[in-house]
Amino acid sequence: MELLVARNPDPDSSLPYLIRVPLAGGLVFRAKDTWPRTKAIYCHPVSDDEWPADAEIVERVALKSCVRRGAAIDVVADRGREQRSQIVFTRARGREMVFWQSPRTRKQARPDVRLPTARASGIAGLEIVVDAHERYPYSFPGQQVTTTRRGLSCGDYAVLGPGGAVVAAVERKALSDLVGSVSDGRLRFALTELATLPRAAVVVEERYSSIFKQTYVRPATIADGLAELQVRWPAIPIVFCDTRALAEEWTYRFLAAARSWAETEAVAAERIGGDSALADAPAAPPPSTAEVRRWARENGIAVPDKGRLRPEVHEAWRAAHRA
């Protein structure tokens, strides 16, 4: 597997090189340079037909890995130095742009271009769905978050993607609940359900060392059980936080990053190639009666204080949210 760099045969082009990335049958870009050494390189995607049959190869870079991850392509060269780089698809000044960057040049990237760093502070008004059965749920104080109570099929906190599907969820565990669910096998089934989502995680409101202070269960049994679960489901991290507040902060950051990723994943999959993880995302859980009742009153629809709502009220809610 090689990344090829050739001279651009077009003498009028301001981008003197062509690069061919071995992904999705071969992606071709016009580029400003042969590798991002001192600054991020602007690239322009072109069709595969633009790669000349008698290309003048400038450099052949053997690759260990070339994988699309969201709106970027991670490229790892098979050499001792300058082996890592990333081709990032982003938007700036109202149009799509591509930059080729390395760890050395990442902080030197153009400040007026929004790169997909997936920082929670970059999302205003993040909406988090809280499971209706969650007792004493997180309120995310100090963050720009709105919460909605619904019955989640798995996880305690979730975010919805642009199309309304569940794109990520977090299962919250206190230490006693973690120990009990590992001992009786409940956590194994919970991870099986979380694995049906594009992104998922388990957050524990305690530090890992507390496992070895247990007196009513062998600490090694819990530690071995957690290790086995991580081997079986490596894509679902089990994260230990020292306190409830830190676990709440981590949950907020994870869900915001997943929401940001979901906005670019489908577009990137279409442009770069390959299947999108969002294709199999489950549909959003239906609203609770209390949520529909509150919405109806905010929109001037008369509803009773208690009891079931008329079918036309639910249909009005669905019609409004489809729009």
From TrEMBL:
Domain ERCC4: start-end pairs: 127-208
MF term (GO), any: acyltransferase activity
One GO BP: DNA metabolic process
InterPro entries: E3-bd_dom_sf, ERCC4_domain, Lsr2_DNA-bd, Restrct_endonuc-II-like
Coiled coil: none
Record Gene3D superfamilies: 3.40.50.10130, E3-binding domain
UniProtKB keywords: DNA-binding
Pfam families reported in the protein's UniProt record: ERCC4, Lsr2_DNA-bd
Record-given protein name: ERCC4 domain-containing protein
Source species: Pseudonocardia halophobica
